[in-house]
């Protein structure tokens, strides 16, 4: 079976992990510090604060910005649930607006109508590795005095107008095994704001600057040295991984017939965390046809967040037609760096066979 994703780890990561195990320093030490420096430089920001996951990076961002009860955060419903849950963890309210049908990202034209006196932040998600329209979002945020928290969990190295995601607002990344680079579990928050970085570091580590002296109530959201050591090796490979993803995406888009292929908006650099096609009729049949030919596919996401039972229980009754239609039609095909030309042809033939 051609898998939908594979973590790419080899002897380099193994050696880095063994070095940490031999050192006896297992949590938040020199490897984490080096990883943070490398990731901040990669994004072009002053600070990176490593966390235990993308979810905890998002929650740390919410808390660091002082977002709490009574506040609203405008975001997308067509995402992994953690984007919106992080807002709920802070006891604030996610407010959903619909998406752009080509990029699947939050539609900036709909944001202003959702702003109320309680709105504190906009939380765009760079879904599938395609950057959101950060020009339009930045302008709206500036006009209304709102914070921008970027969910860049799927978009390591994606750029908008030549600038890396995670450098426009407070960035949040995930290093879960399916992501473009991994640390097993893991995440990072990126920012240019010295004070915000300081608060994030406190929140991540039980509010302590000095051991057993707690300035605030914080959490244990620390990254381990093992994760950071893997991350440092993966960072050295990320550009190569992304280039391979882009080359695979280009090949698929050039050869697939009868389906809408992913779009790359002008001025954007897509890193193809997912290669997502649209199949208005018979999406599930096509997935089955591909499975029979040995090609795994994924549906990201079959149900938008506002339609999830957990959110229905909270009273969400939104109708977001573009997101809801996307959820019925999207199908992600393998695009990961290990695909061979033969694999790509198997995928292409599997999709195109539908029309022969
Ligand atoms: C868009 C998005 N946001 C948030 C997360 C949460 O990241 P993690 O699984 O590392 O907690 C993920 C990944 O799973 C994601 O894809």
Could you please describe the fold and organization of this structure?
- This protein is α/β, with parallel strands linked by helices.
- The protein has helices at 11-23, 30-43, 54-64, 82-89, 134-144, 194-204, 225-255, 283-292, 309-312, 321-329, 341-352, and strands spanning 47-51, 72-76, 93-97, 119-123, 147-151, 159-160, 163-164, 170-174, 187-191, 208-210, 213-214, 268-269, 275-278, 330-333.
- It has a 7-stranded mixed β-sheet with strand order 1-9-8-5-4-2-3, with helices on both faces.
- Strand 2 (72-76), helix 4 and strand 3 form a beta-alpha-beta unit.
- It starts with 10 loop residues before the first helix and ends with a helix.
- The mean pLDDT is 98.
- The structure holds pyridoxal-5'-phosphate (PLP).
- The site of pyridoxal-5'-phosphate has 14 residues, from helix 3 and helix 4.
């Amino acid at each position: 079976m051609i898998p939908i994703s594979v973590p790419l780890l080899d002897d380099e990561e193994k050696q880095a992990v063994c070095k940490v195990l031999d050192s006896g320093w297992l949590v938040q030490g020199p490897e984490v510090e080096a990883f943070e420096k490398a990731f901040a430089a990669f994004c072009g920001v002053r600070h990176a604060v490593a966390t235990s996951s993308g979810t905890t990076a998002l929650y740390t961002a919410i808390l660091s910005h002082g977002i709490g009860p009574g506040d609203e955060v405008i975001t997308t419903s067509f995402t992994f649930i953690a984007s919106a849950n992080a807002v709920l963890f802070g006891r604030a309210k996610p407010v959903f607006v619909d998406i752009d049908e080509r990029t699947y990202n939050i539609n900036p034209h709909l944001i202003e109508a959702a702003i109320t006196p309680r709105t504190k932040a906009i939380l765009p998600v760079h879904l599938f590795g395609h950057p959101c329209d950060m020009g339009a979002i930045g302008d709206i945020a500036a006009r209304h005095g709102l914070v921008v928290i970027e969910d860049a969990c799927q978009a390591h190295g994606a750029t908008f107008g030549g600038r890396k995601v995670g450098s426009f607002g407070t960035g949040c990344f995930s290093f879960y095994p399916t992501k473009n680079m991994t640390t097993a579990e893991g995440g990072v928050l990126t920012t240019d704001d010295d004070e915000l970085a300081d608060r994030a570091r406190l929140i991540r580590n039980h509010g302590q600057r000095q051991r057993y002296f707690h300035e605030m109530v914080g959490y244990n959201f620390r990254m381990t040295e093992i994760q950071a050591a893997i991350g440092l090796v993966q960072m050295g490979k990320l550009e190569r991984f992304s280039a391979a993803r882009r080359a695979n995406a280009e090949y698929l888009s050039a050869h697939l017939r009868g389906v809408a292929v992913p779009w790359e908006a002008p001025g954007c650099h897509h890193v193809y965390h997912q290669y997502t096609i649209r199949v208005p009729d018979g999406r599930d049949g096509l997935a089955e046809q591909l499975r029979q030919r040995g090609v795994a596919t994924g549906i990201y996401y079959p149900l938008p967040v506002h339609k999830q039972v957990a959110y229905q229980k909270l009273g969400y009754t939104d109708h977001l037609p573009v997101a809801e239609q996307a959820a019925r039609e999207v199908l992600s095909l393998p695009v990961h760096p290990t695909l061979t030309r033969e694999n790509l042809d198997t995928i292409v033939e599997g999709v195109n066979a539908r029309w022969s």
